[in-house]
Amino acid sequence: MHTGRHSKYIRPLLYIIDLLIVSSISYVFLSKHIIDIGVIVSFWMILSVLVSVYAVYRFTNLVKILSLFFTQTILLVLLVFTYYYIIEKFIPTKNIILFFITLLLVINVWRILLFEIFKKYRIITGSNNKYVVIIGVNKSTIKLEQFFKHSPEYGYRFEGFFSDKEISNKKGTIEESFNFIIENNINEVYCSIKELSNDQIKKFIDFCEINMKILKFIADDKELFSKNLQLDYYDLSPVISLRKIPLDDPLKGWIKRIFDIVFSLVVICLVLSWITPILALLIKLESKGPVFFRQYRYGADFNKFLCYKFRSMNPNKESDRVQASKNDARTTKVGRFIRRTSIDELPQFFNVLFGEMSVVGPRPLLMSHTDDYKDKINRFMMRHNVKPGITGLAQVSGHRGNIEKDSDMQNRVRYDVFYVENWSLILDIKIIIKTIFNISQGEEKAY
């Protein structure tokens, strides 16, 4: 018989381990009094519900899990500050900072290990699997099938397609799927909305409820279902709305802004402070013109701002319309080096400090490109819901360089929209690390 659930004791055991970690670190850095530790543990438990930090599933990615724990840890520290202020008990700021750093490191390392252990456990033992079928065959369902087949670490076992279409790779018709699900003890049923009538959808809902099967619907390729949706209830009436992007949350916005300020100050003080005079001399010796290149770009909320770079070209009238290309005659010798190593982008950390840009975000495009594509590509303007970045998810995913055809821009927009809708500080850090790695390896499109 197929079994698809974790042991009922695993999740409570994880809660207990987390609480032991929180109480132990509280004992070491904050207080040895049982009441204080009990209050801090209570804060953690309450935040766990509010932040939904334990509402994770086998398909939840690691970045999302770590982002939730990071948010919860920050909120916990704020509550700890407030608690000790109210009871007028002095705790050195250094201890609270050490509490925060230690808790963040220990919890995240523990969760990463757990995440990897479960993945390896499923692959090695072949247990803890969920057996699934897909109702309907189209591009969306075939993509899902590929995920099930090529990602065994998530513990899904694909048992076949069911469709009324005349195709060779199906197990049977939609009607025949009901017996198959019962006889093979299928755990989850994935239905394509595109291929089912309202009556069929209702039949699957009733069938899965009666037989205690998990039913999920696959968004088709219509525009509505490709968006990030949220289900709310007005009294008992279900209403679907576009979900707010993460950075609409003031707390998350401030977290990103604080990170930007700290990171930009570090780069400005430790790198730009000494590299600027050296590059200024080299740029001036090779060609006439200013050290810095300034160009208007569109930023957050479609506001214009002056984007700064070290000048890498001879002054020309085409810079606002024509991107640099490989072996571009306009590029100076110094310019080729600083473009290849991305050093020309470093002055943008001043843009970050001034609040016009972020360290990570959709790259600001030439204004001519934005004007050309904003009405041509779906969801293009989503890029401007957040501040543009010095680096971005599209750039570290292989979509850097010239826009030579519409598909180049479509790929960038796809990654940019994903970033906007799924932002987390952990994702930002991951992109920064990947950017540094790519620069050290050398990028083919960096010219």
From TrEMBL:
Residue ranges annotated for the Bacterial sugar transferase domain, each copy included: 256-439
Record carries keyword Ribosomal protein: no
Keywords: Membrane, Transferase, Transmembrane, Transmembrane helix
UniProt enzyme class: transferase
EC number of this enzyme: 2.7.8.31
Residue intervals passing through the bilayer: 12-31, 37-57, 69-87, 93-114, 261-283
Membrane topology type: Multi-pass membrane protein
Record's subcellular location: Membrane
MF annotations from Gene Ontology: undecaprenyl-phosphate glucose phosphotransferase activity
Family annotation (InterPro entries): Bact_transf (IPR003362), EPS_sugar_tfrase (IPR017475), Undecaprenyl-P_gluc_Ptfrase (IPR017473)
Family recorded in the similarity comment: Belongs to the bacterial sugar transferase family.
NCBIfam families assigned: EPS_sugtrans, WcaJ_sugtrans
Protein name, as recorded: Undecaprenyl-phosphate glucose phosphotransferase
Biological source species: Aquimarina rubra
